[in-house]
Design goal:
40% helix; 14 helices; alpha/beta; seven-stranded mixed β-sheet; three-stranded antiparallel β-sheet
Length: 400
């Protein structure tokens, strides 16, 4: 397999490149980069509509739903806001499951539109207890929605969405899941589990640049759309539903990114959704074996397949750690956010990140830790990860 990150820059006469191990944006496959460079086409044409229709049908497969998928030109937060304003009205109650910076975004969105957010507190690093959510639902029977995350990117936690869907199903509330980081990394069987609304973005498991957001919506959720009175214009899903009948969008599409989406989804379908998830799981296992082999500990108590959050060891400056990894080795991982800044780092293994990238990341981590005074046996993390990869990890499409 050849890493798409190979071949830019030199260090001591050796080819170097930026190796992107951040939980979004993630590396782009060559087919996607080629598509982004094609001459642009007009979006109000049969040529574009045929491509757009094909891409959204493939998105249904990726999101594991038979329901229509709406495409917005925005970041993933745009789809989150669309979910809030299309389902709820000012004064409504909604249950918001906390546990990280992105879970808290649901709370901020509710507050912005005058919706009462009944929060379910969850410690950073912990998954939510579905029974706790069921109890909150019972105590708040007027709640119209439950907002959750699949993968909480800031902590590396994956929540038990299947159990949350079971807890929500018999209530009057709809379950809305932020799968922006989790799609194609962690299991989320939208229709089979009864998840009402799933939102995602383009720059993570879908192997694209930022700029596209997607929503799927059950019939139970769509019934709320006609009742909602929150102000909405660009995010009014009724406009998108109307345009979708003509394989179109109500506003200008990010044309080149949609063309690239079509190529990325060809790779997803060629590989298979279960295999994409298995691949992330194998790389996650390798990355975790690697960091644990040199004495580091995991932050998340229920780790996602898409990103590993690792505690910075005592005596090491976490901000310097991530900086040195990039300055010395051109490997970019993400640090902690908010109160976790400098305390954890986040090592991604989703989308087009390759096993070679994971190994390079571990080697860079060892070098940076050693320079910062942490004692380890050189090569142990890479050795442990290689042992996992020797068991076999599927690749994305035929291009690797």
């Amino acid at each position: 397999m050849v890493s798409q990150n190979a071949g830019r820059g030199t260090q001591n006469g050796v080819a170097m490149s930026d190796i992107l191990l951040t939980p979004g944006p993630t590396p782009l496959p060559p087919q996607v980069r080629e598509a982004l460079g094609r001459p642009i086409i007009h979006h109000r044409t049969s040529q574009y509509r045929a491509l757009f229709k094909r891409a959204l049908q493939a998105m249904q497969t990726a999101m594991q739903t038979a329901q229509p998928v709406f495409c917005l030109t925005s970041s993933g937060t745009g789809a989150m806001e669309a979910a809030v304003v299309n389902l709820l009205s000012p004064g409504d109650e909604a249950i918001v499951i906390l546990g990280g910076k992105f879970a808290e975004r649901w709370q901020h969105l509710c507050k912005a539109y005058g919706i009462t957010a009944v929060t379910v507190p969850v410690a950073y690093g912990d998954p939510v207890n579905p029974q706790q959510v069921a109890e909150v639902l019972q105590a708040h029977p007027k709640a119209k929605a439950v907002f959750s995350t699949l993968c909480e990117t800031s902590t590396g936690v994956v929540n038990d969405i299947k159990s949350l869907a079971a807890a929500t199903r018999s209530s009057g509330a709809v379950l809305v899941v932020d799968a922006i980081s989790g799609l194609l990394a962690d299991e989320c069987q939208t229709d089979a589990w009864g998840v009402d609304v799933v939102v995602t973005g383009s720059q993570k498991g879908l192997m694209l640049p930022p700029g596209l957001a997607f929503l799927s919506m059950s019939q139970k959720a769509w019934a709320l759309v006609e009742q909602a009175t929150c102000p909405r214009f660009y995010t009014d899903l009724r406009l998108y539903q109307k345009s979708l009948a003509d394989d179109d969008t109500p506003f200008t599409s990010a044309v080149s990114t949609v063309v690239a989406l079509d190529e990325a989804l060809k790779l997803v379908l060629q590989t298979g959704v279960p295999q994409m998830i298995q691949r992330c799981a194998a790389m996650a296992q390798a990355a975790r074996a690697g960091v644990q082999a040199i004495g580091l500990t995991l932050f998340s108590k229920r780790p996602s397949n898409g990103v590993t959050a690792v505690n910075v060891p005592a005596g090491v400056d976490g901000k310097q750690l991530t900086k040195r990894m990039y300055d010395r080795s051109k490997v970019m991982v993400a640090g902690g956010q908010g109160d976790m800044a400098g305390k954890i780092f986040r090592f991604a293994h989703m989308g087009y990140i390759s096993p070679e990238d994971v190994l390079a990341g571990l080697a860079a981590l060892e070098q940076a830790l050693t320079e910062l005074g942490y004692k380890l046996t050189p090569g142990q993390s890479v050795k442990a990860a290689k042992a996992v990869f020797d068991q076999g990890a599927p690749v994305v499409g035929a291009a690797r």
